[in-house]
Amino acid sequence: MSPDVRCAVPDDATAIREIARKSWHAAYDSILGAEIVTETIDQWYALEDLRASITEACAREDAVFLVAEEANEPVGFAHAGPHRERPSVASLNRIYVRPDRWGEGIGTSLLTRIQDSLRGEYDQLYLAVLADNEVAVSFYESAGFERVGTQDSDLKQEVEEYVYENSL
User: Fold this and answer.
1) Among 69, 130, 144, 163, which is most exposed with the fewest C-beta within 10 angstroms?
2) How far is CA 100 from each of CA 19, 104, 122, 160, 161, rounded to the nearest angstrom?
3) What would the pLDDT profile of 117-134 be if each residue is shown by its tens digit?
């Protein structure tokens, strides 16, 4: 069964933060350590900032913040918008699914809607992912993203990120 994918609303912020918390701990504890993951979630997913981000993205034509839900329960989310330095490129800022739902096509549904929403506004979709996050690397490569480089992560020293792009 495919999830319903819709534009996020500020009232989704608490559920989004909890999905992020569970997903980040499942994916990154072994790479970054649980303490860094908890600190990052607390900073990047502070409720007021998250509500503002949702409101801003959904009010723009060049950005999108989506929620995937089943039986009116959020199971994943995705957020994309303009790349800071490249006007023809969108940046996939966040895409996470509850870990107990990984592999069910929810991430694919979110990614497809992101791409469909941004096609025409941008030529490329950019993202960076921790190189040691094998689940995410496999997901992006199976979705047709091409690795175009590497960079150091801002999250922890000596942690590398892969940079990917895909045509829209």
Assistant:
1) 144
2) 10, 9, 33, 26, 25
3) 999 999 999 999 999 999
Beta bridge partners of 152: 160
Query: Residue 138 belongs to what H/E stretch?
Result: helix 134-142
Domain count, the chain: 1
* Residue of higher predicted confidence among 156 and 115: 115
The beta-carbon contacts of 130-134 under 8 Å, at least 24 apart in sequence, are 130/27, 130/28, 130/31, 130/32, 130/155, 130/159, 130/160, 130/161, 130/162, 131/159, 131/160, 131/161, 131/162, 132/30, 132/31, 132/159, 132/160, 133/27, 133/28, 133/31
- Main-chain dihedrals φ then ψ at residue 83, nearest 5 degrees: -70, 140
Which pLDDT tens digit goes with each residue over 6-30?
A: 999 999 999 999 999 999 999 999 9
DSSP bridge pairs for 151 = 161
Residues in a beta bridge with 7: 66
C-alpha 59/C-alpha 124 separation (Å) is: 21
Residue 111's domain comprises 4-167
Average pLDDT of span 113-117: 95
